[in-house]
Amino acid sequence: MSQTPTRPRIYYFCLVNTQRYNQIAGDGSYVGAASNKVSALSAALRQRGQRSCVVSMPLCGRGAAPPASATLLRDNGLPWLFLRSHRSRWRRKFSALAQFAWFSLWVVDRHDRVILYNHGFEYLLALFVLRLRGVVTVLDIEDAPRLDEPGLRPAVDRLMFPAFLKLTSARKIVASRGVGEGLKLREFTPVYGAINAPTRRPEPRATWTDVGMTAANPLRIWYGGTIERDTGLDLFCEVLPLLGERLAEAGRYVVFEVTGRGGEAAIAAAQAAACDNLKVEQRQDLDRPSFLAVLRACHVGLSLRITDSSLAQSTFPSKVVEITQHGLALIATPSADLLHIYGSDGAVILGDCAPHSLAEAIMLALHDTSALQEMAQAGFDRSLDQFEAGRVADRLVLSLGLKVRDLRTAPDPASAETCPTAPR
Known about the structure:
alpha/beta
């Protein structure tokens, strides 16, 4: 009989890679937002004295050489257990189905907690095992099923989703308040991300003195992420000629720093119709240090998710976290979550998704840069309250039915304790 541990472990089940695993497996797969969020939340839990680790089935490309057995790694002090993966998509799915179930049966103690990052076929058998054993299992709903997605996989996801809602704890973790309300959940905790934020707003590297008055000192505006219609590609292209006219009339200057992927040809064509007072710098495939250098050189960040899109209704625009934590002012399209987080003084929330509204907001920012600086400070303060790792971890711990620990007696989060891989 297994002994009840002093503190239960928290296992985060997911289907993501890390950069370190990719190096070992010789895989060039993109390490995206899902991996970053899981890592940030698990690390935040450990900072609050919780025994958290990640269990993942990595997604390997055809050219990868995944290890022949499960691999235990430490990444920034956080233990990751990568299950044995396969290059074949279908072998990987059925292997994950068996391995997550085995781990849930033989490694997870019934007093532990399990978080499922999104719903998926790979967790299905483990979900039933955890339910039968009485293990508290919480669903982290990052992407709710979308009715407009064609194909077999989205159809299967829509069929499975009710089972995941039913067989997991009543309280869910959701990517946004809008997701919880849209799914009509009675109990949910919005978790937008976790950051180790400084207590003072970092000043952007660009100067604020006389910003926008000359071509040598333009107002710099960042736009990035995955760039498509739902994330504002059409809106961005339509605002360029309109804003160009207004800048020429006012004698002001703006440079857009575009670091995202997608829409390159459309953006270039739209820029050609603008005037010399407006420039667009497209910078693709930047490494992390280069990306941060570009971001911190800007004054403003854009989040242009189209309000009536399925994407806006099912996920949270995570780029706003990065914008405000690095001290930029935020201009965003309408969002109930953003209004709830930032209020009216922490960000410019547009009234609609029209090009003239965006152009007007940028021109107002140019004419009152001191107010823009104050807004950037207020936005940073709001982001600290909502996204700071310790506060996020405390909300997560309560969602898992655990007690928030007194950090005066908490162990060093970088201790040698790791993720168990063998049966109890």
